[in-house]
Amino acid sequence: MSKYFKAAEFTRCNPSCDISQMDAAFLDLMDRVRELAGIPLVINSAYRSKSWEMMHGRNGTSAHCKGKALDIRCNTSANRFRIVAAAINAGIRRIGIGKTFVHLDNDGTLPQRVMWDYYD
Questions:
Q1: pLDDT tens digits for range 40-91
Q2: Among 13, 59, 80, 96, which is most exposed with the fewest C-beta within 10 angstroms?
């Protein structure tokens, strides 16, 4: 289903999920991001159920609930730049920046050409 991402990586996510819960076209796009970035992309979070999101104070409409989002571990500014540049070049138009991760998604029902941070 994916050139670079293996099923075991999704079971280690928080929350744990199955690669089959991910949107296949989105995983193809993430493979492209991985190729352009030239570094491994370690997944922190992938698919999340609506109930999990709501239990954690979210509204349940996240791209994660559709299998169209990944949070990628990122602990250096150089890797953050590589991931963001690769994502933009691959066509990702929704990017969130955290201290230790980069959120990438391609949910076309949400605002496009946006970048936000999680620093609050």
A1: 999 999 999 998 988 998 888 899 999 999 999 999 999 999 999 999 999 9
A2: 59
8-state DSSP, 86: H
- Closest by Cα among 64, 103, 62 to 80: 103
Contact indicator for 93, 112 with CB cutoff of 8 Å: yes
pLDDT tens, residue by residue, 34-48: 999 999 999 999 999
Q: Considering the domain boundaries, does residue 69 fall inside one?
A: yes
Classify residue 59: in a domain, yes or no.
Answer: yes
Distance between CA atoms of residues 80 and 13, nearest Å: 20
H or E element that contains 87: helix 77-90
d(CA 88, CA 93): 7
Q: Which residues contact 77 (CB under 8 A, 6 or more apart)?
A: none
- Residue range of the domain that includes 78: 7-117
Are 102 and 94 in contact, with CB atoms under 8 Å apart?
A: no
